[in-house]
Each structure stands twice: as C-alpha cells, then as structure tokens.
Amino acid sequence: MPALPLIIDTDTGSDDAVALLLAAASGLGDIRAVTTVAGNVPVAVAARNALISLETAGRTDIPVHLGCDGPMLREASGAPEVHGADGMGDTGLPDPSTAPRDGHAVEALLSYPRRHPGELTLVTLAPLTNIAAALLLDPELFTRYRHVYCMAGAADLVGNVSPTAEFNVWADPEAARIVTRAASADKVTWIGWDVSRKDAVMTPVDQQRLVELGTPMATFTHRINRTVADFARNVTGLAGYDLPDPIAMAVALDPALITEQEQAHVQISVADETRGQLIIDRRVSAPAPNLTLVRRVAEAGFKKLLFDTVAAPAS
Ligand code: BDR
Ligand code: CA
To answer: Can you give the pLDDT at residue 314?
Structure first.
C-alpha cells in the first residue's frame, strides 16, 4: 500500500508527538507538511516540539510551519496540567537541530491541496483555529482534500476539560463551529476523546512494554507522557495515560481499525456552561449529517501499530 500523503495540524503536546511518530515512522504516512497552532502550548513551543518529534523519527526534512497563536475570539488556554509546561512532560528536551520554515500555516493549508487536488489527507490534532481561518479564505477547502480526520469532541458527552467538552473543541469553539458548518459526513471524520478513553489507554503493562523496548522512539513516547499519567490518575480516572491524537492518526493511516462509527448532524455549543460540547442531532428529522463520528477502534490493532512503529530504530 503506498504511503498516505498527509498534512498534519498540531499543537504539539506529548500525545501529538506520538501521533507524529506514527505518521513519520510507521511506513503508512508520507508527511508533506506539519502546521502548528496554539493549544496545549503557545504556537512557537508547538513548532519546537513538532521539530523534536520529527527528529526523533529521523525526519528533519519535513517542513514545519507556524500558525495562529490563539483562538479566533477567546483567550488562549494551555494545558500545562496535562502535558507539562513544555508540552512534553517537562522532560527538558534539547532544542531541535532544525527550525520552522517560512510561510504561515494557514497559507500552507490552503496551498498544498491546490497544488495536489484530491490527493492529500488532512489530520488535525489541535484546536481548529488554523483550519477555520483557512476555511474563511477558501470555503471549498475541504473538497480539495482527499479526506479530513480531526481529533475533536466527545460524542458521548464525557469531557476531559469540562464535564461535557473535549479540549480541542472547547479551546476554540467558534473555530470548531466554522469547521462543522463547512463539513460533510463523506469528507470529514471526527475521532473524539470517547474513543481515546475506551480504546487508547496505555495501561501499566503497555507502559512497561515501552520501557522494555528501550528504543529512542519507545523511550521518548513513555517519558513525555508522564504528566498525562498523573492527569489520568487524578482527573480523568483512566487506568493509564490515554493517547487521543495517536489513535486519531492511526484511524487516518488505517481506517480498517474503525469498529464502530455513525454519521450525524453536529453543532458546537458556544454557550458558557456547555462551551465546546457537541450537539448531536439524531432525530429522523435532523438536517443531513455533516460529520462521521468514529465511536470505537480496535484497541489491539492500534497498539500493535504503535509498538511496531516505536520498536524500530529511527532511520
Ligand atoms: C486533545 O487535547 C490535547 O490535550 C491532546 O493533544 C489532544 O489533541 C485531547 O482532548
Ligand atoms: Ca493535540
């Protein structure tokens, strides 16, 4: 199977970093560009972390672009309590050997699919600010991509940043609203935090396996997610750290991993108490579905892809 040509939008924190390893080193992805945005960390830190992650995978050639440094209307809100102040578990990683490329992320999101219409898959792992900005400039943008996969939302309304909302949608709900209004269910697939909570939790046994593998990518994966492990223990109550962005990336790279999905009309709440919550209309009278919502993924298949990828020595 030829590798999937990808554009990846990321606010690189510790789980985005693992998603970048999957895309860069599994053999299933062909990353053409990485665009960065504020979210877990400010945009410059996200770009630094993306460059470090790609270097860990042996891919210093992939262009990384800086994008928007805050939501469309709201104050920027990081996630130091989840991913550490540096986004990478406060592990003191050295600076990357490469720097971001010229050109704004939004320009890259617009120009790559114009040069390669219908060929590129867009994977978003972050608040949707860059994507919404690009859609305001080109409302037909999604038609120019082969498919769009977003780590976004919580279709079961169990939130990680509020009782009912998931971080990427909560952080910039107006941007998410622009995205859902431009989306169609045959083109745009969301993999929410519900999937991560059920099918992408790294248990103590999984964590020990990473330690025993001991390769640069396995060690990196384990170390940078240590603050997420604390957050899982104290806040979300999971049996280990979860990997939302990697499982979204795995679905993009291998959609056969999906075991359950639905199509529905989804809107985004921008009201105070329900900020970022998905409003899913499942009535027979609902408007036409605008999103495919992945609801379950084969956990064993996802973890096999992860372990196989990080077990390799970086090229
Ligand atoms: C999302 O928010 C961030 O903490 C993760 O990187 C992921 O993109 C999960 O809600
Ligand atoms: Ca992310």
So the answer is: 63
